[in-house]
Structures are given as C-alpha cells and as structure tokens.
Amino acid sequence: MSLDAGPDFVRRHIGPREQDVATMLGTIGVSSLGALIDKSVPGGIRAGRELDIDAAASEPAVIAELREKASRNRVLTSMIGLGYYGTHTPPVVRRNILENPAWYTAYTPYQPEISQGRLEALLNFQTVVSDLTGLPTAGASLLDEATAVAEAMTLMRRAAKVADDAVLLLDAQVLPQSVAVTQTRAGALGIDVVVADLRDVRDAAGLRAAAGDRDVFGVVVQYPGAAGEVVDWRALTAAAHDAGALVTASTDLLALTLLTPPGEWGADVAVGNSQRFGVPMGFGGPHAGFMSVRSGLERTLPGRLVGVSLDADGAPAYRLALQTREQHIRREKATSNICTAQVLLAVIASMYAVWHGPEGLAQIARDVHGKAVGLAEALRAGGIEPVHKSFFDTLTVAVPGRSDAVVEAALDRGINIWRVDADHVSVSVDETTTDEQLAAVAAAFGVNAPQASDGTEIWDDALVRTSDYLTHPVFNTHHSETGMLRYLRALADRDYALDRGMIPLGSCTMKLNATTEMESITWPEFADLHPFAPADQTVGIRELIDDLEGWLCAITGYDAVSLQPNAGSQGEFAGLLAIHAYHQANGESERNVCLIPASAHGTNAASAVMAGLKVVVVKTAPTGEVDMDDLKLKLKQHGETLAAIMVTYPSTHGVFEDTIAELCDLVHEAGGQVYIDGANLNALVGVAQPGQFGGDVSHLNLHKTFCIPHGGGGPGVGPVAVRSHLAPYLPNHPLSAEAGPDTGVGPVSAAPFGSASILPISWAYVRLMGGAGLTAATETAILSANYVAARLRDSFPVLYAGQSGLIAHECILDLRPLTKESGVTVDDVAKRLIDYGFHAPTMSFPVAGTLMVEPTESESLEELDRFCEAMIAIRAEIQDVIDGKVAAADSVLRHAPHTALSLTADWDHPYTRAEAAYPAGVDPLRKYWAPVRRIDGAYGDRHLICSCPAPEAFED
Ligand SMILES: *Cc1c(COP(=O)(O)O)cnc(C)c1O
C-alpha cells in the first residue's frame, strides 16, 4: 500500500511517508519494504494470503457506523445495583481527564520523575480508599471487584496460619460475580470455597460448622450485602480471628462515608470497586477495583503501590514503592500476576473525591440513602414490607409469585430492576435517581410515590460512622471549577505522555491513540449500560463485540476469541485454564508442567502458578533464541506431565526466531499445548498468524497492538484466542448466557464482557485501517525498529538480531560494556533522556543493564531521528567519562534530570547550565521540564508512606 496515496486515516496513523521509507531502507541497506519483511520474518510462518478484513473506512464513516451500533442499544435507567451504579462524572473531570490525551496516553509510571502528576492522583486514590475503609495501606488499583476478592483470597491464604486444607468461607450475600470469579481462581489452586449464610456465626465453633466442619483460612463478607442488608460483622470477625482466619470486607466506598468502616470493626482486608465515584458503568468496565489492608500486610498487597520519597535535592517526590517486586511480577514466586491495572479509572475516582470533598461525598450518600428509605416507606405504606430492616441504597422486596410482573412493570416505565427469584426483586438507588424514577418504581409495585427522607442512617448506632475521613487539604481545596481545572492542569503539566513526544518502550507498543477511536466511549449508549442489563437492550454493543471477535480471529488465525479478560495477565490465566481443562477432558489431568523461556515477561510464570501449573524454565541460547537443546532435554524430562509451553513471539528479545515452527512441533509431539504470548502482535498482524504457525492459544493486548491508550497503567483488554479444540473451555459468566460456552471454565472478570466500554476503540482502529492498512502498520513498525537499530548500532550494540542481521519490531541496546568501562548506568541514560525531552525506553527487561526500544509505526521519521540523535549525543557524553574528562559521579548523566529550580540554584557542576537543560538539538520552545530530580527509591521503601502525607512528614 502506498503510504502517500492510501486511505486518509492510514496515512495519519502511520508516521513515515513514502519518501521516508526509501531513506530508512537505505540506512538499513535493504532494497524494498517487501524485501525487509521477507528477510526478517521466517518464510515458514508467513501468512499465505492477505488479511480477510474489510477495506478501510473514513473517520466520518466509522463514527456513523458506531452511531448506528450505539442506536441499537437501549439505555434504560438502571436500578440493578450488584456492584454497578449510576453516577455523575463531573464534566470538568470527564473533559480534562477521560477525554484528555495528557492523561490517557501516559505510560505506567515506571519513570517517576516524569510521572509526578498521575502519581499524585494515584496517591489521592490510595488515600480515599484507605480513609474510607479505615485500613492504613491501599494499593493503586486492581482490575475489578471480583478479581480483588480473588486476590484477597490468596493474600489471606498466605497470611493465615492454619492447616493447608483449610477452606475459604464466603457469605451468601457476596456479589454473585465475585463468588464465581473466586471459584474459578480457587478451583485452579485446589482451594475449596464454601458459601454460607454467616450472619449468625458467633464463635470459632460456629465458623467451623458453617464451613462444613472444616478449618477456615479466610472469610469474605459483602458490606452492605448484595441484597442490600447492612450487617454488623463484629462477632463473625472475632470468631474468624479466634480460629486463625483473616476477614475481607468487599465494600462500597459511598456507603462507607456513613457506615463504620471495616477497619474499625476488625476486618484485615477491604476490597471493592470505585466505579460509582464518577466512572460510567460502561457495560461492565473498565473501573478501578481497590484493596486496602491492615498494618503488617502491606508487603503482601497485589498490584502497584504508590509511595512518597525524596529526590536528589531532598524535595518530596512520588514513585512506585517496592517497584522492582512489581515490575517483574516476581515470576513463579509471584503473589499475583497483575501488571496492567486501572490507573486512568483510579485517577477519575480520586478526582471525584477531590471535587466533592468529604462533605460533598457524605451529602451524596445521605441523598442516596434518603431516597432508598423513602422508597421503603412508600412500599410499607402500600402493604409491602422490604425484607431487610437495615440497608443503605438497595432494597430487596418480597413479591410472592409476582417478580416477573413487577420487573415488567418497571421496564414499561423505562427502569431495570433486578429479579432475584420468582418471589423477590431488588432495587438500587444511586446519585442519579430522580423523584420521577422513584415514583415510577413505586408505581411498578403498585404503591404511591415516595417522599425521600433526610438521609439519617436507619441502621444500628454501632454501625454509624463517627470517624473523620479525607481531611487532607487536597480533598478540601479544589471545589470551584476554576480551582479544579487548574489542579488537573497542574498535574497533567508534570507528566510526559504521547502528547509531548515519543515513548519508545519495548514490549508496550505506545502507538497513536487516535481521537476518532476514542470518541464513542463516552456516548451514553455505550457508557451507561449496566453489565447485567437484559440482552435485548444491549444488541448494538454485542454486535460490536461479535465483529471484533471475528476480526481478531481473522488476524490471528485462531477459531474463537473471548474478550472477557481485562488485562493481558488475565488473558494468560484464561488461556492456561483452557489448556488445563482440555487435558482434563482427555483424561490427562496429570499434565501440570508449564515450560517458560528465561526471557519471558513476568506475568507468564505468575499466571502459570495461578492456573495451578508448575513452572519449568527453558534456557536462552547465547544468540537470544530459546535454547533448543535445553528444550529437548526438558521435554524428555517432563514429557508425560507436560501441559504447555508459553513463548512470546516475536520473542521479548525482539527477534523472529526461525525455530518457532520446530518448537511448536516438538511440544505437540510431547503432548503439550503451545501458548503464544501475543503481546508482540504488532510485529505479526497481516504478516503471520500464531493460530496457523503452531499456537493453540494466545492472548492479545488491545492496549498495545489495538490502540486502547495505556491510561498511565490501565485500562487494558487481554482477549484470549484459541483454536477450536480449546473453544469449549473459554471463560463464561453466570449472569450472561451470551458471554461464553456452557462448558467454559467460569468467569475471569466481574463483567460478562470485561472492559466492554473501551472495545469501540479497537473496533474503530480495525475499521479505519482495513486489512491493507493493518498490514502496512506492521511492516512500518518493523521498518522503524530496524532503522533505529541501524542508526544506533555504532553507538550502542544491538544485543540480538536474527540470522539476516535484522530484528523484529523492537531492539535491545546493550549498555553493559559501556557501563563497565565508564560507570554510567542504564538509569543514568534513562534520566538523561528526560533532559533531551524523551521518555526512556524499557529498562533492564528482559536483560538487566539494557534498554529496549520499540518505536512503533506511528512515529514520524523526524521523531525517530530526534530520538536517535539524542541517544548518539548521550553516547558522546559517556565517551567524555570514558576519556577521563569528567568522573561519572560528576557528569551531566549522573545528575540528570535537571529541573528549572536546580538550574537557578548554586551551580558547581563541571558542565554548564545550558549543557544540562538544552543539550544538542533540544528546541527551547518544546522543552519538557521535569518537576523533580532523580528520586531515591530505596529511601521511600525504607520509610513507606502510601497515602497523602501531612506536610510535616518532610520536616527534618
Ligand atoms: C504487556 C505484556 C504482558 C502483560 O500484559 P498486561 O496487560 O500488562 O497484564 C504479558 N506479556 C508480554 C510479553 C507483555 O509485553
């Protein structure tokens, strides 16, 4: 396809022009793009024909198609509840965060000096969760409430000192999707789960009896319960602690503004979903799940944790605490496989709290509670007694034999309520519920319109919250729109995202997230659907899901896809569960070994462990490929018990390995399944199909290859794609027959279609590019990577290349020899790149002491050159150290990044201020100023502060 004459959008998505391609090919020394692909991609795996995807459509046409799909959803008022509620996203937050590329195109804050804005927002999130749950340490988001319950299960299992065969006890009022996801996870680990009514448990003997005369390691309660009831769990908690078990409360942040927080009645862990803090329901997600823990458990928290530390000038600065633990997910020693989380949504939820403040939040909660109480009184006056005396926002109502009729009557009035069973319905009130809607619901029950009460708590005094929360100034300052706008701007200005320049991260594919792709996600027809809304109201979004599944099959060569996993890690887990179920169905349940090459992403091994598999590492050959001799040895050793191999293709070394087809054959011969980690699919789309060259299952990352923006560390979507023999074992969902096969492995996400509301982004990308455009993107990504490698090879050795001397879509620059010679580290180079106006490449993954660069197809030749020239200039700075002109410790590299403040302070460096701030080629008009200097991570880990610090925290 011509990059100059092709469809408009393709030309806008792909950076280089036709003439640039010629220049780049010249630098690489290859005659044509076709020749480059022929030489770099092994012939044996090349797709034989063009992608079977429709031709590209224009941006206006794609928006029109999306409007048409949207119009086939029917957005009714949702009073379904069950963890998802109507909420008003403050417009100032919607426009300036959710619709602002400064926030949504940012990367995970692994380079904290250029991520202070989102790190502050995440610290605010942790403070909100910690204050409201009454537990001292909260993490920076989990994937959803149901997976958070599952994470709490494994945390409690590790922390409880009880027998190995002890069980997990769930109260009967835990949300049904949380029960189901927890059962999926527990099943893989061989943990037994018992669901029972725990309201009357008073002592350790009662607890044991409830568990069917078994020891218990953990208890989970929903607070308030799924049916709405507010229960005092103190006696149960004391009983659990007596028995050596831990207690998790799955809870609701809005209710906790009025309810005694779990931390005050003894819970060890609190989890939940922050959705109703301003994040639309979105047919199930994305939203930020959360977890907080009592002291003593902070080092076992899954996911990321933001902490406070100091920079080189002693100024306070934020960074990910205990980060090395998290960045590499600790492989088989992992306690969780979470990498991509829900940063953007956590930021929105935190800003909802900043915007409303503690008083505003309590007022919203009282208003919601008052409406629910009013509805209960109206029902009572009409002779219908709600089932529970104590509730916050949800009423369960007995309507013997009439529940279908009542649900229907509500539907006629434009409202979805929940059918619990033939004799009961439930109704949830939220901040968006109007008096008219309450009157309509009352009419559906055949009673008179309610009068809202004043919102005074109707539950026991023992559960009325008396403690303060959100007293920090950040929650009590930015309450005017002018103030809020400026606070959001100030934070965004501290960060480097794709709206400033290239983010050349290996393995993460930071490509264009086009505005047209983003546009529809905030349309009410997609944003305001409840995930459990009746299927006839969600026709449009499910059509879109079907389209996308079909296209992903066409691209990957697999037969079936599930979009339910809400991150790559969850796709991995789902894929491994499918493999396990398949072996079991074949009577080979002894197959439990998962081979993983040494270079694999940390999530691979962590997912294997979660799926109940035993990890066996396969060595890497000196050339960077999987060591085939070692593979053969491991196959011999484990053949009988081999379940699968997990390989990334092209490998995390950035190379198309010639041996992939042979590797797949060997594993299949040994009776194993081949899991191909598809995170690097940006090098394959239109060129080769993992489902055809030997893979049985892959996960893809829509937040890498398919343009869902990184969001500063989430959201993501990690579809799992399988060949037909594994299709019966894809995820399904207890509350949605449409979500997967009856024979499925159970749900891996809370919502039937995971993070459904961001799927229009990837749908739009495929429509806008068409088959030829997608292929051109892949070819250009490979071209750009080879161009960067060719330009930088003389300055920094490229660690691995294929037999042709070419690489795939990314390359590893080996700094180790230079570090040895000069003392200048990868850290020094990464931080110095900030002075030059760049986000650093991936550091020390998959090889310590190296940088991995993936330019993607979206960067122009001009931007690629700007990056290469910065790297070459840095190489010259390193040479000065090698030549003895300056000591590493005094060099401009070691003191990077330089803030504006540091330039105007006393200056006793052997380099000038101009050399520090405007090194070769930096355009003063485009200068990005880091807000802090290099951050001391170790200091922060020794003095762990993970919520908004009081200013005194930094006094000497
Ligand atoms: C990003 C990545 C993953 C994990 O995906 P998440 O969405 O972050 O969970 C797994 N494998 C590889 C090779 C990756 O690059």
TrEMBL record:
CDD domains: GDC-P (cd00613). Pfam families: GcvP2_C, GDC-P. Residues 777-898 form the Glycine dehydrogenase C-terminal domain. GO terms for biological process: glycine decarboxylation via glycine cleavage system. The modification N6-(pyridoxal phosphate)lysine is found at K704. One of its GO terms (molecular function) is glycine binding. Keywords: Oxidoreductase, Pyridoxal phosphate. It comes from the Bacteria. Its EC number is 1.4.4.2. It catalyses: N(6)-[(R)-lipoyl]-L-lysyl-[glycine-cleavage complex H protein] + glycine + H(+) = N(6)-[(R)-S(8)-aminomethyldihydrolipoyl]-L-lysyl-[glycine-cleavage complex H protein] + CO2. InterPro entries: GcvP (IPR003437), GDC-P_C (IPR049316), GDC-P_N (IPR049315), GDC_P (IPR020581), PyrdxlP-dep_Trfase (IPR015424), PyrdxlP-dep_Trfase_major (IPR015421), PyrdxlP-dep_Trfase_small (IPR015422). The glycine cleavage system catalyzes the degradation of glycine. The P protein binds the alpha-amino group of glycine through its pyridoxal phosphate cofactor; CO(2) is released and the remaining methylamine moiety is then transferred to the lipoamide cofactor of the H protein. Belongs to the GcvP family. The glycine cleavage system is composed of four proteins: P, T, L and H. This is Glycine dehydrogenase (decarboxylating). It comes from Metallococcus carri. The gene is gcvP.
